[in-house]
């Protein structure tokens, strides 16, 4: 039985009403709660948990029990509109070489296990995975939102607050902390287990930026539920910010982070001092700032 999307959404809302009430101001509450995540996350425990999962993955197929439903639910709130997000892209260094040197089953084991660990960290720091692209994980972080009730349709719609008056470094430093934890988990959690099982070390590059992005709908995803065909919008992100963050990731040295000038401009105090501007020429980096036309500045973390 084919059911219209609006009907499906009514069913979903009805079944999740208790959850919705508990999270009535979900995104604002999440925003506030996530500011101090780096202070409460026990990195050593995270590394140990990662090692256990990696060890299990190498002994059997990785249990990649990850859903992107939460990502889609967040994006539904901004469907067919624009929002400012922090985009994080992490990919493996030298995966092409690994593809030549490793049997396909060993290669896929590494990539799936890596993707699982990075996904767990993204969620831990309050982000959402948008998609998996080969050996890369592309994620987004909602850093500042206001919930505005639309009295015309009796439902809450979340819209981005364009005011920068209350911006500070905290939500952005949280994303940077996520990136540093990713590198640490790879170096101290994943690689020791891989070495014990005759796998090569992994190295990563991470690119992060901030800016306005369009949330667009690409058709619908259909699932069967209680003999009904449920239709949900399939959403994706489009814009200069997301395009440039994927491109600039390749500029990072292995196990380093690069950020764009938009994100760097949101930093304050000591956080800015942990990054240095890369010296780039048009031959190496031919991307411009939209407003000025000057070369788009990229900054790399100081090791």
Short descriptors:
two-stranded antiparallel sheet; 12 helices; 303 residues; Alpha-Beta Plaits; disordered N terminus; eight-stranded mixed beta sheet; alpha+beta; 10 strands; 26% strand
Task: Describe the 3D structure.
There is one protein chain. The chain is an alpha+beta fold. It has one domain: Nucleotide cyclase, GGDEF domain (Alpha-Beta Plaits). It has 12 helices and 10 strands. Strands 1, 2, 3, 6, 7, 8, 9 and 10 form an 8-stranded mixed β-sheet that branches. Strands 4-5 form a two-stranded antiparallel ribbon. Helix 5 (43-59) runs antiparallel to helix 8 (104-124). The longest helix is centred in the middle third of the chain and has 27 residues, at 170-196. The protein is globular. The model is unreliable at 1-5, 14-35 and 145-167 (pLDDT under 50).
């Amino acid at each position: 039985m084919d059911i219209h999307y609006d009907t499906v959404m009514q069913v979903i809302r009805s079944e999740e009403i208790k959850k919705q009430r508990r999270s009535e101001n979900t995104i604002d509450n999440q925003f506030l709660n996530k500011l101090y995540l780096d202070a409460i996350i026990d990195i050593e425990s995270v590394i140990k948990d990662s090692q256990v999962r990696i060890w299990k993955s190498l002994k059997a197929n990785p249990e990649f029990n990850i859903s992107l439903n939460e990502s889609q639910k967040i994006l539904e709130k901004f469907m067919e509109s624009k929002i400012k997000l922090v985009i994080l892209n992490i990919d493996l260094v030298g995966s092409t070489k690994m593809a030549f040197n490793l049997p396909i089953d060993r290669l896929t084991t590494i990539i799936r296990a890596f993707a699982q660990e990075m996904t767990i960290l993204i969620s831990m720091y309050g982000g959402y995975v948008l998609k998996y692209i080969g050996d890369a994980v592309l994620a987004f972080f909602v850093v500042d939102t206001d919930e505005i009730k639309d009295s015309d349709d009796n439902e809450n719609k979340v819209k981005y607050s364009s005011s920068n008056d209350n911006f500070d470094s905290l939500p952005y430093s949280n994303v940077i902390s996520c990136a540093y934890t990713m590198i640490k988990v790879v170096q101290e959690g994943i690689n020791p287990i891989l070495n014990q099982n005759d796998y090569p070390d992994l190295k990563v590059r991470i690119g992060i930026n901030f800016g306005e992005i369009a949330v667009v709908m690409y058709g619908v995803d259909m699932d069967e539920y209680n003999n009904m065909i449920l239709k949900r919008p399939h959403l994706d992100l489009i814009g200069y910010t997301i395009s440039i963050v994927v491109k600039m990731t390749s500029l990072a040295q292995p196990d380093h982070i690069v950020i764009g000038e938009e994100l760097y401009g949101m930093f304050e105090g000591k956080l800015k001092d942990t990054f240095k501007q890369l010296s780039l020429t048009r031959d190496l980096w031919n991307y411009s700032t939209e407003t000025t036309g000057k070369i788009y500045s990229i900054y790399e973390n100081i090791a």
